[in-house]
């Protein structure tokens, strides 16, 4: 890891999570949990049978969101993650499952606790905004 990546006062959040490999670890764990743990059955049921495209897409989105490469936005000019979820029937149960699985994925991938808490708070706000009123 470079000096910049370990200096938390200067490093971007993307550096702090370990770059693309760090983001990918979290995303792989997130979809593995969704795929194999019945706790997330309702969330799993909303997704396509093949989760591979989502593994790529969420890795790219989170990389950009954390200050890394902007591929997700470059490939979707004008896209907004909140709008992308507007037509989805997201309720309290599926929103809570998403946030719970992501929180576990971050902890199990050893995201540093302070960064994990910061991300968790942002995900909670996003998930609340994505729920159907
Ligand atoms: C609130 C709970 C959430 C639920 C229930 C949910 C559900 C879904 C579903 C069903 C899809 C489509 C999957 C498919 O086609 O197989 C999707 C796509 C996606 N979601 Fe979520 N989502 C939630 C929150 C979030 C949050 C907080 C983020 C970002 C931090 C996010 C990022 C994405 C991305 C990047 C895609 C792919 C969109 C694309 O690349 O075009 N989701 N979500």
Task: Write up this protein.
GO terms for molecular function: heme binding; metal ion binding; oxygen binding; oxygen carrier activity. Belongs to the truncated hemoglobin family. Group II subfamily. Its cofactor is heme. This is Hemoglobin. The protein is mainly alpha-helical and 133 residues long. The chain has one domain (17-130): Globin-like (Orthogonal Bundle), CATH 1.10.490.10. The protein has helices spanning 3-6, 13-16, 19-36, 41-46, 52-65, 71-74, 81-84, 92-108, 113-130. α3 (19-36) packs across α8. Protoporphyrin IX containing FE is lined by residues 43, 46-48, 54, 57-58, 61, 81, 84-85, 88, 90, 94-95, 98, 123, 126-127, 130.
Name the CATH class: Mainly Alpha
How would you state the average pLDDT, rounded? 93
How much beta, percentage-wise?
Answer: under 5%
Outline type: globular
The hetero molecules present are: protoporphyrin IX containing FE
Structural class: mainly alpha
- Radius of gyration, in Å, reads 15 Å
CATH-level-2 architecture: Orthogonal Bundle
The helix content is: 55-70%
The CATH topology turns out to be Globin-like
Span from first to last CA? 44 Å
The CATH superfamily bears the name Globins
Instruction: Note the quaternary state here.
Output: single chain
Number of strands: 0
Main sheet overview:
none
Tally of domains: 1
Distinct helical segment count: 9
Topology order in helix (H) and strand (E) letters: HHHHHHHHH
Would you identify the regions where 5 or more consecutive residues have pLDDT less than 50? none
Pfam families: Bac_globin
Organism: Sphingomonas gellani
Family: Belongs to the truncated hemoglobin family. Group II subfamily.
Protein name: Hemoglobin
């Amino acid at each position: 890891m470079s000096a910049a990546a370990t200096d938390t006062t200067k490093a971007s959040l993307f550096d702090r999570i370990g770059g693309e490999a760090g983001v990918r670890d979290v995303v792989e764990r997130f979809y593995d949990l969704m795929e194999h743990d019945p706790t997330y059955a309702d969330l799993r049921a909303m997704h396509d049978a093949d989760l591979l495209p989502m593994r790529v897409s969420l890795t790219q989105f989170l990389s950009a969101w954390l200050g890394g490469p902007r591929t997700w936005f470059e490939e979707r000019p004008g896209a907004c993650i909140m709008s992308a979820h507007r037509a989805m029937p997201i309720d309290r149960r599926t929103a809570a499952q998403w946030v719970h699985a992501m929180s576990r994925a971050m902890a199990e991938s050893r995201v540093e606790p302070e960064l994990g808490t910061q991300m968790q708070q942002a995900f909670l706000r996003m998930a609340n905004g994505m729920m159907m009123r």
